[in-house]
Amino acid sequence: MSGDMTAAEHRRHAEVRQRVRQLYAAIENLVKRHGIHQFLMTATTILRKSFGDASMMTKWPPHRIIHAMEACCAYSRMTQYDEITYNRLAKLMNLYHEYLDPLQQDALKNNLDHFVRLLYREQMELQHQQSQDAIARDLTLYATDESLPKSARSFVEQFGLTPFQWIKLSFLSAVAAEKEPAGLFKIHSVLSFEKLDMPESAVMNYFRLSSRTPAQIGRYFKETRPIGREYFYSSVGSVFLETPFIRFDEETALAPLTSLVFRHSGQGLYRLMREIDSFDDEISTGFERYVEKVLNCFESKVSIHSAKALQRYAPGKNADFLVELEDEILVVECKATSSTARDLTENALDTDTATRKLAKGIIQLYTSAHDLEAGIFGKLGVDRRKPVTGAVVTLGEVVHANSRWFFDKFVLAKAEPKLKEPIYPSSKMPRLPVAMSISVLERLVMACNVLSSTPGTLYVAKEHTHYWLEGDWDQFLNKRLQESNLPITGLAFLADQKSRLLESLGIADWQE
């Protein structure tokens, strides 16, 4: 605590700590007398039902059930086994409902953008649904012969299975868990799969790396909520975002949310592989290669030029791709990063690696836009009269990256010291570049193809919407595609990866 704080601020901090401690003491009092196994089974049954019923979700918010499950693992005395009833759980939900989190309340009063970010961390991050395209993307990025050759070999040496086996096991485990009402399944059901085609050791290594026991979950719960940081407790991510299974014993696992198991196919790999020395360089190159595949799916594409081609005429830091479409030019910079900010304070957002890389990408986009306008890329045959739209594409999600508060305060502020005339401001690229994850770029390409539109015309339409009503680009594009009532054609190159996985599973077709 800073010595410069006033007496009033000291009192405020003390009150906040006391309020949070009272909540956690009340939670402990309600869950400590229940056996962990019965509590988790009952809670997971309700959790799964609430995901399919909007009215039930209001009464049984998934993020609060998840929190209660983790709290039970931390506080159960395991010597008393009072019956866990719906009324008992309802009392626990009321306790959460009546509590006003100080971090969120302060953000709501001071900054709506910050408040929405906190809600995303607490709630929406757990509700993400993985699509078949996302799994095909994981296969392309991590599990082909050309993907990450050095890192893949190191992964096998360290963890005892291949990236492809990891993704396949995520799929099989999610299916096994989904068949059971409470998500409790026997690991033998995965081992006995006819088309498993891998050693038992690979399966057991997968579950070792992807699960925690109730005792381990309890320790994680307490370790990530140390005394003195009570104000930030609500911004602690769920343990199930890292390890989506609960291991009761060597034979039995519980998956509270199978959507997190599907998500684990890519995010779990990324979390483990980023500790491998060769990974940063390989994923950067592989991500650029993947983005190029996506950009080549623009039906209106005239030509596409990589950074290597641009550097022949303009040495230095250019964008990764210059894509000439029939009516405009899209300049793209790739950043194989995602947000890792923990507490989501302004300082955490400002120092986040993703923020720094977005800023660096902005500089590269403006540099390439200037070089294009100056005619430096004339020998490439690009029509420089066409309007330009810029995009920084990230591997993972940077939540609400295009809200003006976040973009101006953190991203543009970091970039502006290196944005000088004549590069910036840009008459060629008058609109601010867009920050988007790779999944949003995929949707952008599909939207342009389906709607016979361009990134620029969609940008104009997006500018005429209210940010907090329409959301960021992911929600905007999804809504546009839904409202069109037109058939949506996926990206062709992903079909091969879907087929590869399905063939290994002995499945003829994929059902969403």
Care to describe what's here?
The protein is α/β, with parallel strands linked by helices and 512 residues long. The chain has 3 domains: 93 residues, no CATH class; 142 residues, no CATH class; 193 residues, no CATH class. The chain contains 24 helices and 9 strands. It has a 5-stranded mixed sheet. A 4-stranded mixed sheet has the order 1-4-3-2. Strand 8, helix 19 and strand 9 form a beta-alpha-beta unit. Helix 4 crosses helix 13. The chain is globular, with a radius of gyration of 24 Å. It starts with 6 loop residues before the first helix and ends in a 7-residue tail after the last helix.
Mean pLDDT: 93
Number of helices: 24
Number of domains: 3
N-to-C terminal Cα separation, in Å? 51 Å
Structural class: alpha/beta
Characterize the quaternary organization of these chains: single chain
Strand content: 5-15%
Major sheet description: 5 strands, mixed
DSSP strand tally:
9
Shape: globular
Question: Rg, please?
Answer: 24 Å
Strand order of the largest sheet: 5-6-7-8-9
Fraction of residues in helix? 55-70%
Task: Outline the low-pLDDT stretches.
Answer: none
